[in-house]
Write a structure and sequence with these properties.
The chain has 367 residues and is an alpha/beta fold. The chain contains 16 helices and 13 strands. α13 packs parallel to α16. The longest helix is centred in the last third of the chain and has 25 residues. The N and C termini lie far apart (60 Å).
Protein backbone atom coordinates (compact mmCIF):
# COMPACT_ATOMS: atom_id res chain seq x y z
CA UNK A 1 0.00 0.00 0.00
CA UNK A 2 1.28 3.46 -0.90
CA UNK A 3 0.46 6.10 1.69
CA UNK A 4 -0.28 9.50 0.11
CA UNK A 5 -0.37 12.04 2.94
CA UNK A 6 -0.77 14.94 0.53
CA UNK A 7 -4.12 13.61 -0.70
CA UNK A 8 -5.45 13.62 2.87
CA UNK A 9 -4.71 17.31 3.47
CA UNK A 10 -7.61 19.71 3.80
CA UNK A 11 -7.83 22.02 0.80
CA UNK A 12 -7.16 25.09 2.93
CA UNK A 13 -3.95 23.61 4.34
CA UNK A 14 -2.76 22.44 0.93
CA UNK A 15 -2.85 26.01 -0.36
CA UNK A 16 -1.16 27.64 2.62
CA UNK A 17 2.27 29.21 2.14
CA UNK A 18 5.01 28.19 4.59
CA UNK A 19 6.04 30.96 6.95
CA UNK A 20 9.53 32.19 6.12
CA UNK A 21 11.46 33.46 9.18
CA UNK A 22 14.32 34.96 7.18
CA UNK A 23 17.91 33.80 7.06
CA UNK A 24 19.87 32.76 10.15
CA UNK A 25 23.64 33.24 10.55
CA UNK A 26 23.99 29.46 10.25
CA UNK A 27 22.24 29.47 6.86
CA UNK A 28 24.40 32.32 5.61
CA UNK A 29 27.53 30.49 6.74
CA UNK A 30 26.46 27.35 4.84
CA UNK A 31 25.25 29.09 1.69
CA UNK A 32 27.66 32.00 1.42
CA UNK A 33 30.69 30.90 3.40
CA UNK A 34 30.47 34.00 5.61
CA UNK A 35 31.39 33.05 9.15
CA UNK A 36 30.89 36.39 10.92
CA UNK A 37 27.44 37.78 10.30
CA UNK A 38 25.44 40.56 11.89
CA UNK A 39 21.78 39.53 12.17
CA UNK A 40 19.48 42.54 11.86
CA UNK A 41 16.46 40.76 10.43
CA UNK A 42 14.22 39.39 13.19
CA UNK A 43 13.64 42.38 15.49
CA UNK A 44 15.27 40.74 18.50
CA UNK A 45 16.49 42.79 21.45
CA UNK A 46 20.26 43.27 20.89
CA UNK A 47 20.79 43.68 24.65
CA UNK A 48 19.46 40.19 25.25
CA UNK A 49 17.27 39.15 28.19
CA UNK A 50 17.10 40.67 31.64
CA UNK A 51 19.80 39.48 34.06
CA UNK A 52 16.95 38.68 36.45
CA UNK A 53 15.39 36.43 33.82
CA UNK A 54 18.68 34.61 33.32
CA UNK A 55 18.99 34.09 37.08
CA UNK A 56 15.43 32.80 37.28
CA UNK A 57 16.16 30.36 34.47
CA UNK A 58 19.23 29.03 36.25
CA UNK A 59 17.25 28.46 39.42
CA UNK A 60 14.41 26.74 37.54
CA UNK A 61 16.55 24.33 35.51
CA UNK A 62 16.42 21.49 38.09
CA UNK A 63 12.61 21.50 37.88
CA UNK A 64 12.23 20.92 34.13
CA UNK A 65 11.16 17.32 34.73
CA UNK A 66 7.90 18.72 36.12
CA UNK A 67 4.99 19.90 34.00
CA UNK A 68 4.46 23.66 34.06
CA UNK A 69 1.48 25.40 35.61
CA UNK A 70 -1.18 24.99 32.94
CA UNK A 71 -2.93 28.17 34.08
CA UNK A 72 0.24 30.33 34.32
CA UNK A 73 -1.16 31.61 37.61
CA UNK A 74 1.87 33.57 38.86
CA UNK A 75 2.52 35.27 35.54
CA UNK A 76 -1.15 36.13 35.09
CA UNK A 77 -1.25 37.52 38.62
CA UNK A 78 1.77 39.73 37.93
CA UNK A 79 0.34 40.88 34.60
CA UNK A 80 -2.98 41.63 36.28
CA UNK A 81 -1.25 43.92 38.79
CA UNK A 82 0.89 45.59 36.13
CA UNK A 83 -1.88 46.16 33.59
CA UNK A 84 -4.78 46.81 35.93
CA UNK A 85 -7.01 44.12 34.43
CA UNK A 86 -8.58 41.09 36.09
CA UNK A 87 -6.87 37.71 35.90
CA UNK A 88 -10.02 36.38 34.25
CA UNK A 89 -9.16 38.66 31.29
CA UNK A 90 -5.65 37.27 30.75
CA UNK A 91 -4.56 34.25 28.75
CA UNK A 92 -0.83 33.43 28.51
CA UNK A 93 0.14 31.92 25.16
CA UNK A 94 3.03 30.24 23.36
CA UNK A 95 4.20 33.52 21.88
CA UNK A 96 1.65 35.99 20.56
CA UNK A 97 1.34 33.78 17.46
CA UNK A 98 -0.58 31.16 19.43
CA UNK A 99 -3.17 33.76 20.35
CA UNK A 100 -3.93 34.34 16.65
CA UNK A 101 -4.22 30.58 16.10
CA UNK A 102 -6.55 30.16 19.08
CA UNK A 103 -8.75 33.05 17.94
CA UNK A 104 -9.05 31.36 14.55
CA UNK A 105 -9.78 27.93 16.05
CA UNK A 106 -12.45 29.30 18.38
CA UNK A 107 -14.23 31.85 16.22
CA UNK A 108 -13.68 31.21 12.50
CA UNK A 109 -15.55 28.87 10.19
CA UNK A 110 -15.09 28.17 6.51
CA UNK A 111 -16.42 31.14 4.54
CA UNK A 112 -16.00 33.68 7.33
CA UNK A 113 -13.96 36.79 6.66
CA UNK A 114 -11.02 38.48 8.40
CA UNK A 115 -10.03 42.04 7.52
CA UNK A 116 -6.36 43.01 7.70
CA UNK A 117 -4.07 45.72 6.37
CA UNK A 118 -1.83 44.95 3.43
CA UNK A 119 0.95 44.30 4.15
CA UNK A 120 0.89 43.21 7.77
CA UNK A 121 2.25 40.37 9.93
CA UNK A 122 1.61 37.15 7.98
CA UNK A 123 0.52 35.04 10.97
CA UNK A 124 -2.94 36.62 10.93
CA UNK A 125 -3.59 35.37 7.41
CA UNK A 126 -2.08 31.95 8.05
CA UNK A 127 -4.28 31.41 11.12
CA UNK A 128 -7.44 32.52 9.31
CA UNK A 129 -6.83 30.52 6.15
CA UNK A 130 -6.08 27.40 8.19
CA UNK A 131 -9.74 27.49 9.23
CA UNK A 132 -10.97 28.15 5.70
CA UNK A 133 -11.72 31.81 6.30
CA UNK A 134 -11.30 34.45 3.60
CA UNK A 135 -8.77 37.22 4.26
CA UNK A 136 -9.73 40.63 2.93
CA UNK A 137 -6.59 42.71 2.51
CA UNK A 138 -6.90 46.49 2.55
CA UNK A 139 -3.89 48.36 1.12
CA UNK A 140 -1.97 50.67 3.41
CA UNK A 141 -2.05 54.41 2.86
CA UNK A 142 1.31 56.14 3.30
CA UNK A 143 2.63 53.02 5.05
CA UNK A 144 -0.21 53.19 7.61
CA UNK A 145 -3.28 51.03 8.09
CA UNK A 146 -6.25 52.70 6.42
CA UNK A 147 -8.87 52.36 9.18
CA UNK A 148 -11.83 53.87 7.25
CA UNK A 149 -11.15 51.60 4.28
CA UNK A 150 -10.78 48.58 6.55
CA UNK A 151 -14.14 49.37 8.15
CA UNK A 152 -15.69 49.67 4.70
CA UNK A 153 -14.40 46.18 3.93
CA UNK A 154 -16.35 44.68 6.86
CA UNK A 155 -19.37 42.64 5.80
CA UNK A 156 -21.93 40.32 7.35
CA UNK A 157 -19.43 37.48 6.96
CA UNK A 158 -16.63 39.34 8.77
CA UNK A 159 -15.77 37.82 12.13
CA UNK A 160 -12.50 39.59 12.89
CA UNK A 161 -10.56 42.75 12.05
CA UNK A 162 -6.87 42.69 12.96
CA UNK A 163 -4.78 45.81 13.56
CA UNK A 164 -1.07 45.86 14.33
CA UNK A 165 0.42 48.82 16.20
CA UNK A 166 3.28 49.46 15.70
CA UNK A 167 2.74 47.82 12.35
CA UNK A 168 5.09 45.10 11.20
CA UNK A 169 6.71 45.77 8.70
CA UNK A 170 6.43 49.59 8.53
CA UNK A 171 6.74 50.69 12.17
CA UNK A 172 3.75 53.05 11.96
CA UNK A 173 1.03 53.15 14.62
CA UNK A 174 -2.74 53.40 14.98
CA UNK A 175 -3.69 56.77 16.48
CA UNK A 176 -6.16 57.28 19.32
CA UNK A 177 -8.91 58.66 17.01
CA UNK A 178 -8.37 55.75 14.62
CA UNK A 179 -8.58 53.17 17.40
CA UNK A 180 -11.72 54.83 18.75
CA UNK A 181 -13.24 54.78 15.26
CA UNK A 182 -12.43 51.11 14.76
CA UNK A 183 -13.68 50.02 18.18
CA UNK A 184 -16.89 52.07 18.09
CA UNK A 185 -17.91 51.42 14.47
CA UNK A 186 -17.35 47.68 14.26
CA UNK A 187 -20.60 45.72 14.54
CA UNK A 188 -21.09 43.50 17.56
CA UNK A 189 -20.40 40.25 15.67
CA UNK A 190 -16.82 41.30 14.81
CA UNK A 191 -13.80 40.89 17.08
CA UNK A 192 -11.26 43.72 17.00
CA UNK A 193 -7.80 42.22 17.52
CA UNK A 194 -4.97 44.66 18.24
CA UNK A 195 -1.47 43.19 18.08
CA UNK A 196 0.92 45.28 20.20
CA UNK A 197 4.07 43.16 20.00
CA UNK A 198 6.28 46.27 19.77
CA UNK A 199 4.29 48.52 22.08
CA UNK A 200 7.06 48.95 24.67
CA UNK A 201 9.29 50.61 22.06
CA UNK A 202 6.79 53.38 21.26
CA UNK A 203 8.02 56.85 22.26
CA UNK A 204 5.17 58.90 20.79
CA UNK A 205 3.38 60.47 23.80
CA UNK A 206 0.14 60.56 21.81
CA UNK A 207 0.06 56.79 21.37
CA UNK A 208 -3.18 55.39 22.84
CA UNK A 209 -3.36 52.97 25.75
CA UNK A 210 -5.25 50.07 24.21
CA UNK A 211 -6.34 48.75 27.60
CA UNK A 212 -8.44 51.88 28.18
CA UNK A 213 -10.42 50.97 25.06
CA UNK A 214 -10.58 47.31 26.03
CA UNK A 215 -12.43 48.26 29.22
CA UNK A 216 -15.14 49.96 27.13
CA UNK A 217 -15.31 47.60 24.16
CA UNK A 218 -15.66 43.91 25.16
CA UNK A 219 -15.25 42.76 21.54
CA UNK A 220 -11.62 43.95 21.66
CA UNK A 221 -8.65 41.58 22.10
CA UNK A 222 -5.15 42.95 22.76
CA UNK A 223 -2.12 40.71 22.19
CA UNK A 224 1.40 41.36 23.49
CA UNK A 225 4.62 39.40 23.78
CA UNK A 226 7.81 38.85 25.78
CA UNK A 227 9.74 38.20 22.55
CA UNK A 228 10.68 41.79 21.71
CA UNK A 229 11.77 44.31 24.34
CA UNK A 230 11.91 41.62 27.05
CA UNK A 231 14.39 39.61 24.97
CA UNK A 232 12.76 36.19 25.40
CA UNK A 233 12.05 35.31 21.76
CA UNK A 234 13.59 31.86 22.17
CA UNK A 235 11.21 30.92 24.99
CA UNK A 236 7.95 31.86 23.23
CA UNK A 237 5.77 33.65 25.77
CA UNK A 238 2.96 36.03 24.87
CA UNK A 239 -0.45 36.89 26.22
CA UNK A 240 -3.90 38.11 25.26
CA UNK A 241 -6.08 40.59 27.13
CA UNK A 242 -9.72 39.85 26.40
CA UNK A 243 -13.17 39.57 27.92
CA UNK A 244 -13.79 36.59 30.23
CA UNK A 245 -16.12 35.13 27.59
CA UNK A 246 -13.45 35.30 24.89
CA UNK A 247 -10.86 33.88 27.27
CA UNK A 248 -13.15 30.95 28.09
CA UNK A 249 -13.51 30.21 24.39
CA UNK A 250 -9.76 30.32 23.84
CA UNK A 251 -9.17 28.02 26.82
CA UNK A 252 -11.33 25.39 25.12
CA UNK A 253 -9.02 25.17 22.10
CA UNK A 254 -5.56 25.74 23.57
CA UNK A 255 -3.19 22.89 24.31
CA UNK A 256 -2.62 21.83 27.93
CA UNK A 257 0.65 23.19 29.33
CA UNK A 258 1.02 25.46 26.29
CA UNK A 259 3.70 27.66 27.92
CA UNK A 260 6.73 25.84 29.26
CA UNK A 261 8.03 26.13 32.82
CA UNK A 262 11.21 28.06 31.90
CA UNK A 263 9.29 30.51 29.78
CA UNK A 264 6.91 31.28 32.63
CA UNK A 265 9.60 31.94 35.24
CA UNK A 266 11.74 34.00 32.83
CA UNK A 267 8.77 36.12 31.75
CA UNK A 268 7.80 36.75 35.36
CA UNK A 269 11.33 37.91 36.22
CA UNK A 270 11.60 40.00 33.04
CA UNK A 271 8.30 41.73 33.77
CA UNK A 272 9.62 42.84 37.14
CA UNK A 273 12.93 44.17 35.75
CA UNK A 274 11.79 47.64 34.71
CA UNK A 275 15.39 48.89 34.59
CA UNK A 276 16.25 46.44 31.81
CA UNK A 277 13.18 47.48 29.84
CA UNK A 278 14.16 51.14 30.13
CA UNK A 279 17.77 50.36 29.11
CA UNK A 280 16.44 48.52 26.08
CA UNK A 281 14.10 51.37 25.22
CA UNK A 282 16.87 53.97 25.52
CA UNK A 283 19.30 51.86 23.48
CA UNK A 284 16.63 51.63 20.78
CA UNK A 285 16.16 55.41 20.79
CA UNK A 286 19.88 55.98 20.36
CA UNK A 287 20.19 53.28 17.73
CA UNK A 288 17.23 54.63 15.80
CA UNK A 289 18.76 58.11 15.67
CA UNK A 290 22.11 56.67 14.59
CA UNK A 291 20.56 54.63 11.78
CA UNK A 292 18.47 57.59 10.61
CA UNK A 293 21.70 59.60 10.23
CA UNK A 294 23.45 56.77 8.37
CA UNK A 295 20.52 56.25 6.00
CA UNK A 296 20.23 59.97 5.27
CA UNK A 297 23.98 60.23 4.72
CA UNK A 298 23.81 57.37 2.21
CA UNK A 299 20.75 58.76 0.44
CA UNK A 300 18.20 56.10 1.45
CA UNK A 301 14.60 57.01 2.21
CA UNK A 302 12.98 55.32 5.20
CA UNK A 303 9.72 55.21 7.14
CA UNK A 304 9.99 56.88 10.59
CA UNK A 305 9.37 54.10 13.09
CA UNK A 306 7.86 53.57 16.53
CA UNK A 307 9.27 50.04 16.74
CA UNK A 308 12.75 48.50 16.88
CA UNK A 309 13.10 48.18 13.12
CA UNK A 310 13.18 50.55 10.15
CA UNK A 311 11.63 49.98 6.72
CA UNK A 312 14.07 51.31 4.13
CA UNK A 313 13.37 52.04 0.46
CA UNK A 314 15.96 50.44 -1.80
CA UNK A 315 15.87 53.41 -4.15
CA UNK A 316 17.93 52.68 -7.25
CA UNK A 317 19.52 49.60 -5.64
CA UNK A 318 17.06 46.74 -6.27
CA UNK A 319 19.47 44.15 -4.88
CA UNK A 320 20.22 45.95 -1.60
CA UNK A 321 19.27 42.86 0.42
CA UNK A 322 21.84 40.73 -1.40
CA UNK A 323 24.46 43.49 -1.38
CA UNK A 324 24.21 43.65 2.40
CA UNK A 325 24.19 39.87 2.71
CA UNK A 326 27.47 39.65 0.77
CA UNK A 327 28.95 41.94 3.41
CA UNK A 328 27.71 39.75 6.27
CA UNK A 329 24.70 41.91 7.20
CA UNK A 330 21.44 39.95 7.42
CA UNK A 331 18.35 42.12 7.01
CA UNK A 332 14.85 41.17 5.86
CA UNK A 333 13.99 41.38 2.18
CA UNK A 334 10.82 43.39 1.71
CA UNK A 335 9.60 41.08 -1.04
CA UNK A 336 8.82 38.40 1.55
CA UNK A 337 7.04 40.96 3.74
CA UNK A 338 4.77 42.34 1.03
CA UNK A 339 6.78 45.51 0.47
CA UNK A 340 8.95 44.88 -2.60
CA UNK A 341 11.63 47.47 -3.20
CA UNK A 342 12.38 47.73 0.51
CA UNK A 343 14.38 46.06 3.26
CA UNK A 344 13.45 45.92 6.93
CA UNK A 345 16.39 46.52 9.26
CA UNK A 346 16.35 45.72 12.97
CA UNK A 347 17.86 48.46 15.13
CA UNK A 348 20.94 46.83 16.63
CA UNK A 349 23.52 47.62 19.27
CA UNK A 350 26.30 50.15 18.64
CA UNK A 351 28.62 47.63 16.99
CA UNK A 352 25.89 46.18 14.76
CA UNK A 353 24.73 49.63 13.70
CA UNK A 354 28.32 50.64 12.98
CA UNK A 355 28.88 47.58 10.78
CA UNK A 356 25.65 48.24 8.93
CA UNK A 357 26.78 51.83 8.33
CA UNK A 358 30.13 50.65 6.97
CA UNK A 359 28.37 48.22 4.62
CA UNK A 360 25.94 50.85 3.33
CA UNK A 361 28.70 53.38 2.75
CA UNK A 362 30.71 50.79 0.87
CA UNK A 363 27.73 49.93 -1.31
CA UNK A 364 27.14 53.60 -2.13
CA UNK A 365 30.82 54.34 -2.79
CA UNK A 366 31.12 51.40 -5.18
CA UNK A 367 28.11 52.61 -7.08
Amino acid sequence: MIFDAWSLLREEVRELPVYSPGKSPEEVAREWGISECVKMASNENPLGPSPRALQALQEALPTVHLYPDGNCYQLREALSRRLGVGMECLLVTHGADEAFDLLAYAFLNRGDQVVVGDPTFSSYELAARTMGAEVRKVPLRDYRQDIPAMLEAVSERTKMMVLCSPLNPTGTTVSAPELEEAASRLPGHVLLVLDEAYREYVDDPRHPDALEYFSRYPHMVVTRTFSKIYGLAGLRVGYAVCSPAVREALEKVKLPFNVNRLGQVAALAALEDEEHVERSREANRRGKSALYRILEECGFRYVPTQANFILVNNGDRPHLFLELLRRGIIVRDGEALGVPGHVRITIGNEDQNRRLGEALRDIVERG
